[in-house]
DMT family transporter
Amino acid sequence: MTAPQSTATTADPGGTQPAAGIPAGPVPGRRLDFTLLAVAVAGVSMSAPLIAATAAPALAIAFWRNAMAVGVLSPLALWRHRAELRHMGGRALALSVAAGVVLALHFGMWLPSLNMTSVATSTALCTTTPIWTTLVLRLRGHRPPGLAWAGTGLAVLGVLILTGIDLSTGARALAGDLLALGAGMAAAGYVLLGAEVRRTASTTAYTFVCYGTTAVVLLAACLVSGSALGGYDGATWLKIVALTVAAQLLGHSLLNRVVRGLGPATTSTAILLETPGAALVAALWLGQTPPAAAYPALGVILAGLALVILADRRKSA
């Protein structure tokens, strides 16, 4: 996989085939990407509160959110994007499948970790994604400027201010910590692979193949582990549907949409906003008072994201 380029793109509201890469700059398409990124972060911020409130096995929740998303995308993908899917190309198809496998690994490691270690520690370790993204870009020949490193570190610091990171010594908790860390690494691979595929493929075609692969892998994991795939009450199914719409279709799908224009570094750093976002959602919906550090942490994360964006713009100038 070559290092993804940070490019801007014309608006792609319908998920149609994007235009060729245009040097990043203050163009309308880039402003639209930031708007969609904000919607995506709001969507993924619903993930943890909804999962916490859903009485179903973690792997089953992960399977259904992807399977339902594929069901929603199927009419559009198989009708309007049928020709693109047929001529997607072996490389783009293989990378899309790989992204689906990595996304399944992310879900398969992070969701169980929430029951093995503290939610705060799991969240902090899982949201190390931008660190791994920046490191992989560096290894692939991309030269992130010092400002980008500083912004990434500042944003991660904001998550630590909010959640803390108290690594436990118990065997079960330590295993949960390692799973959460692995989930953060897997998320970085997912963002990087998506950025590469989105250079040539539309959002709809990519997400259809990616989510379909993720659903198949998670279905196999559910069958092997014995996770119940049904028998839930109506309220549980409604929460799974809400999770699919908010976190999967609006969250992950819009992240896949904007990663081509904003680049993997900016996109993965913005995902850190999920942590304070989830805290605020939990406060409003579940009545959980946000910690005193929530608001300053949000400011620190936003400052770090601003530095990453500034570094990207300076490099593209």
